[in-house]
Amino acid sequence: MTLIDTVPGFRATLGVLATELGVELPAEEMTRRLGPPLEQLLAPYLPAEQIGPAGDRFRELYPDHAVATVPPLPGAHEALAAVRELGGGTVVVTGKYTPNAQRHLDRLALDVDHLEGWVWGVGKAEALRTHGASVYVGDHVHDVEGARAAGVLSVSVLTGGCTREELLDAGTDVVLESLEAFPGWLAEHVLEQRRVALEQRLRELGSVLVAFSGGADSALVLAAAVRVLGRDRVVAATGYSHALPAAERDPARALAEQLGVRVLTPATHELDRVGYRANAGDRCYFCKAELLDTLVPLAAEHGLAAVATGTNADDVRAGFRPGIRAADERGAVTPLADAGLTKAQVRELSRRWGVPTWSKPAAACLSSRVAYGLEITPTRLARVERAEAAVRAVLEGAGVILRDLRVRDLGEAASVEVDAPLARRLAGGETAARVLAAVREAGFHEASIDPRGFRSGSMNERLSQPERYR
């Protein structure tokens, strides 16, 4: 099954079967050739009429003599987890008797979505196609046959009975020493696939206006668009409003200009929208609606085919994202999400391309700092911005390295979120006292440091657990 070391269990069960039948079955030789159906392995040693019953008896003996002793191959759990982490599913397609294969999976807690047993060679192709597999990992030349018949990528590991040369001669696409090498290979393979998909999506658009915040996601969209379409068919647009921290504006413009594209900075007026000022759980809907209602006509004015946002695949799976709905309703395209690129992959691809935002912390708008239900006003946003600037100044003056910071506006009180290890380190110390004093000087009556540290979207916790924050 590629996931487990079947040799000890197979050998033990074969020994019991040989004793019952009163024949000699060369266990060492037979285990070197594991892979084909059991009946094929038994054929040289038994009369034809005994092969079927012997196979049935082997399968009866197997649970008691093999399942408890068979270990997972090194890297098996990690390989399955790697698929899951990248948003994929898993199907085990094996020549093993299905109930016994399921016993192995259950005992070893191997997390798979589907099991197709008792299929062999090209017969595996139907199961692979049925479950939409794109990669088949095996250790035998007949696994390669199944993969090729299904039209999927064949990845072979050298933990079975076949040599590298045999597997390559059979037509496998990739040979790995073991499953331990699979997560790294898979990460690279998927990233390359998604990079190609991103570039193809942009190529299809022909020209694009990128809703450019200066963060890692929109920066990658902009860089990719320039690579694929050229500078003359790409424009960056950053909406300027009270919600955009002033400290974000110059770096965003500088990066866009470094890429050689035109930069537009239209004013957006989120605060003119009642739903935005009300600051209920759907505030982001009104924010994104205002941005797209500004950018869509701007794109048309400049002869650009589409407006692209930096929405990534993680954003789409995150659940409560009203801003994504507003952008979708207005026809915005999402090249990163369309290509399946996650936040981690956005950062890795950006690093490889030399896009400086690859390691930039997430920087949500100032309104995201304000507790739901409190009205969004220019004064409130300015107070948050002053408080964050003051906290950064205190920590930098103390020689503290800070990555993430949010000052959450809870009304007259503020909650300061910094990197979790730093929050624990600051607890009760002199630097913490200076931080809290700086926040009060910025206009808050009370201030505290959240001991749980920075959490992206922590204000949403107040929507799902309102009783905790009363």
From TrEMBL:
Positions of the UniProt region annotated as Disordered: 450-470
Pfam families: HAD, NAD_synthase
Listed CDD domains: LarE-like
Molecular functions per Gene Ontology: sulfurtransferase activity
Keyword GTP-binding: no
NAD/GMP synthase domain mapped to chain residues: 198-357
InterPro entries found in the cross-reference section: HAD-like_sf (IPR036412), HAD_sf (IPR023214), LarE (IPR005232), NAD/GMP_synthase (IPR022310), Ni-pincer_cofactor_biosynth (IPR052188), PGP-like_dom2 (IPR023198), Rossmann-like_a/b/a_fold (IPR014729)
Residue ranges of the TM segments: none
GO biological process terms held by the UniProt record: purine nucleotide metabolic process
Record keywords: Transferase
Protein name as annotated: ATP-dependent sacrificial sulfur transferase LarE
Organism: Nocardioides acrostichi
Gene: larE
